[in-house]
Amino acid sequence: VTELLHSVKDETLNLEYVKKHLKKYASADANLDDIISEDSEYNFGNQLAEEFVSKLGTNKYPQVLINGVPLWDDSATPVTSSVELLEEALVTALARHTGRLQRAVFRGELSDSDDALDFLMKQPHIMPRLNRRVLASEPTQYLDLSGVPSSTELFTEDKVHRLIHLTGRDALATALPILQYFTK
């Protein structure tokens, strides 16, 4: 991706340009239309990005979002052109956001016992939480992995009814060896 972005000099970055350069790096049996077509994940993501930018009330894509606020780059040299420029822009923007929190502490609107994330989410310029699971502040739940595993033969059709007699943590310890995405 970085080679593709650096190869753009005087040309505009569009779908045809991406297809032309993607052919250089794709395997011989790769179908570019499956990768970049109307029904592809790329196009779906592109549509979501366009919808997001239109909700911002502009047609210019922000390169970076800080706390949901776009970091607009109006300088001659884009902030994403080098790590140093990006770091400087991020530190400057974060200093502005930190100042808001400091003012809230000074005014007594935010204290040690308050959750800073909840305070920020209640601000009028912040969109409310849409997905409760992403930023939920409910207590974390843990799986108890301290159980004693029984034989994994209990997962056969004729013996599966014996799992009911195991405690929750013993049943989990019994199932762990055959689960693909969990490890102890």
From TrEMBL:
One of its GO terms (cellular component) is endoplasmic reticulum. The keyword Transferase applies. It comes from the Eukaryota. It holds the Pfam family Thioredoxin_14. InterPro entries: UDP-g_GGtrans, UGGT_TRXL_3. One of its GO terms (molecular function) is UDP-glucose:glycoprotein glucosyltransferase activity. The keyword Hydrolase does not apply. Keywords: Transferase. GO terms for biological process: ERAD pathway; protein N-linked glycosylation via asparagine. Signal peptide: none annotated. Residues 16-134 form the UGGT thioredoxin-like domain. This is UDP-glucose:glycoprotein glucosyltransferase. It comes from Pararge aegeria (speckled wood butterfly).
